[in-house]
From TrEMBL:
Xref: InterPro entries: TPR-like_helical_dom_sf, TPR_5, TPR_rpt
TPR repeat feature ranges: 38-71, 182-215
Protein name: Tetratricopeptide repeat protein
Keywords: Plasmid, TPR repeat
Chain ranges of the Tetratrico peptide repeat group domain: 218-301
Gene3D superfamilies: 3.40.50.11350, Tetratricopeptide repeat domain
Pfam families with a match to the protein in the record: TPR_1, TPR_19, TPR_5
Length: 649
């Protein structure tokens, strides 16, 4: 009769031969004899996972680890099972446990890196890249590891040209080991597009599609590169093929190209199709269809459609309610019915870019209308002169993101003598700007942020006039030489001062030194951005407070529960001032009142990675001290919002 050890050996052989039923039966017989046999529990768990019974697999693998807690490969497989169940944080913890047991376990390094890369967010990408590198040190001839490292480096290198160069090298390393690696050709192409090397990128996509001719992802990305290169008809073909291959995200891209070609009827058909397809960009399709119907003056039709629209592939009938309400409000706004637009979105809370733009502009227009005024946008007096536009300025991000995009665009326009045209956007209403409306007829410029940054800072000198520069954009550095120019552009219009000045006046009535802190939570938690811990600010304030002249602490936050953490400093928020009758909240536009305080405080503390408070710091002329979180050191440190430009470009 076989021993348990011999039976295990036979069962493992059966499992490796894919004879899972026989292996499963033998593991169960072993466990009848030895119920605490960790190896049998673990390997039976892998069979259960392979056959789709993941909950049972978790139970078995955990039982194995209770018996043998130092079984590193079981920890690694536990992590993989948790990941398949969508329990990413638990899976990452299990991979870290495996590595604590066996630091040389390559699958755990690879698994942790993949989890963090997929989960996303700045806190994860650098760790993901480091884990891929550790895996490569253990198994250096793995093309898939070089490919995945390249993806992690690209995600974490949004503003770092050095990281993108390393990502390019990583994809080339993958291709040196496996020349027919279609995904590596595709992702190398994506990197080259971002670096502005479109001809090289197109070659990469053609190579990828030669290997896998109807691969949907490669067709989609090829379409992006073709559109960026001005090959609109070719992009249409690629997007159509991508949609046929099941990549329904390509439908909104296809509609965008068709619109640019003047084929609006076809674009409308594609957008309506996108609103019925699983996996499509539903929010984007709603925004684009709304804009198309408004542009054609079909206001009532738009309201009826979006009032009745339900996405058929999600059980929740309200999944896209905010986007639909935004479209309805947009139609009222375009028809001049400002009060109706405000009414539609009153009490609605959302984070979408288009929602923010429509709701905020409606509120600002309503204030002007009650003063008997309206904002008249000038037309470009000479559209034949060199110009640039950004038709997407109000479609990515919210207030600060849009303003920081505008700063980059205007620096570029002024440096090369171009006229800047902009659509209606919140910053254009709030600040005293007079840029002309879009005149149309410009070639789209995709993936422009690195190119524009290099042009503005002098790293390259091949400017492009007469282009529509598409979001997302942002300025990589804020040079001191631009400070006064940028501040001169971004001054609130006089019409808004009665709504924002009283907040500062109420604070000055309470003390001589206004200390303002911005504490960001909300979407920072969802997107895994760095969270500023209130304890860091409390420790900093304890040392600072006695040195200030009658200080008053103002907290601007999207999480009011954090205010209690500052109780010893008698903190004040906009809600507190409103309850005291000192100010009237600007309904729906309270973010501008908070921003005004941050922009005028005597001491300003920003949130980590928050463009909102960092923009306020850039515009603040009063503060004698600016501070920011140092997440690595878990403390608060002084910083300068504007940086010296003494370095070489």
């Amino acid at each position: 009769m076989a021993t348990v050890a011999e039976a295990l050996q036979i069962a493992v052989g059966l499992q490796r031969s894919d004879r899972l039923g026989e292996a499963r039966a033998l593991y169960l017989r072993i466990l009848e004899v030895d119920p605490r046999n960790a190896t049998a529990l673990h390997l039976l768990g892998l069979i259960e996972r392979r056959e789709g019974r993941r909950d049972k697999a978790l139970e078995l693998i955990r039982s194995a680890l209770e018996v043998a807690p130092q079984m590193a490969d079981a920890c690694c497989n536990l992590a993989s099972t948790l990941s398949e169940l969508g329990r990413i944080d638990e899976a990452a913890a299990a991979q870290r446990r495996a590595l604590a047991i066996d630091p040389a376990l390559e699958p755990a390094h690879h698994g942790l890196a993949t989890l963090l890369c997929g989960r996303g967010g700045p806190r994860d990408w650098a760790v993901s890249a480091a884990s891929f590198r550790r895996a490569l040190r253990l198994t250096p001839q793995r093309p898939n590891l070089y490919h995945d490292l390249g993806i992690a480096l690209r995600q974490g290198g949004a503003s770092d040209a050095g990281a993108l160069a390393l990502a390019v090298d990583s994809q080339r390393n993958a291709l040196a080991l496996q020349p027919d690696f279609a995904a590596a050709h595709m992702n190398l192409g994506n990197l080259l597009v971002e670096l502005g090397r479109l001809d090289e990128a197109l070659v990469c996509f053609r190579r990828s599609l030669t290997i896998e001719p109807e691969q949907g992802g490669a067709l989609y990305n090829h379409g992006n590169a073709q559109h960026a290169a001005g090959l609109a008809d070719a992009a249409v073909d690629s997007y159509v093929r991508a949609a046929r291959a099941g990549v329904n995200l390509s439908l909104t891209r296809l509609a965008d190209v068709l619109t640019g070609l003047g084929r609006e009827a076809e674009a409308e058909q594609v957008l309506r199709l996108a609103l019925t397809r699983p996996g499509s960009d539903v929010a984007g399709a709603i925004d684009m269809l709304s804009a198309l119907l408004v542009r054609q003056g079909r206001y009532e039709e738009s309201r009826r459609f979006f009032a009745d629209y339900r996405y058929p592939h999600i059980a929740d009938p309200n999944a896209f309610r905010i986007e639909c309400l935004t479209a309805i409000a947009e139609s009222w706004l375009a028809a001049g019915e400002v009060d109706r637009a405000v009414e539609v979105l009153a009490g609605v809370h959302g984070h979408g870019s288009r929602f923010f733009t429509v709701k905020s502009i409606a509120g600002l227009q309503q204030v002007l209308a009650r003063q008997g005024k309206r904002l008249e946008r000038p037309a470009n007096p000479d559209p034949s002169a060199p110009r640039i536009c950004s038709s997407t300025l109000a479609t990515h991000g919210r207030f600060a993101h849009n303003v920081l995009e505008y700063v980059l665009l205007r620096l570029y326009a002024e440096k090369f003598g171009y006229r800047l045209e902009t659509p209606d956007w919140v910053g254009g209403y709030y600040f005293d700007l007079d840029d002309p409306k879009p005149s149309g007829g410009l070639k789209p410029m995709h993936f422009a942020r690195r190119i524009l940054n290099d042009l503005v800072t002098g790293r390259r000198d091949d400017p492009r006039p007469d282009v529509d520069i598409l979001s997302p954009l942002f300025l990589f550095e804020h040079r001191e030489e631009w400070r006064e120019r940028v501040r001169s552009w971004l001054r609130p219009r006089p019409e808004w001062l009665p709504h924002v000045d009283p907040v500062m006046q109420a604070l000055k009535a309470r003390g001589n030194t206004v200390v303002a802190l911005h504490i960001r939570r909300g979407d920072f938690v969802w997107f895994r951005y760095t969270i500023t811990e209130t304890a860091w600010y409390v420790d900093w304030l304890k040392a600072l407070w006695p040195t200030l002249d009658r200080p008053v602490l103002y907290i601007a936050t999207d999480d009011p529960a954090t205010i209690a953490d500052f109780a010893e400093f008698a903190p004040v928020s906009l809600d507190d001032l409103a309850r005291d009758g000192a100010v009237q909240p600007w309904k729906g536009l309270e973010f501008l009142q908070d921003f005004h305080v941050l922009m005028n405080a005597d001491v300003l503390g920003v949130s980590a990675q928050s463009g909102y408070s960092q923009l306020a710091a850039l515009l603040n002329r009063n503060a004698r001290l600016f501070v920011e979180p140092d997440a690595a050191a878990r403390r608060i440190r002084p910083y300068s919002p504007w940086t010296s430009s003494s370095g070489t470009p």
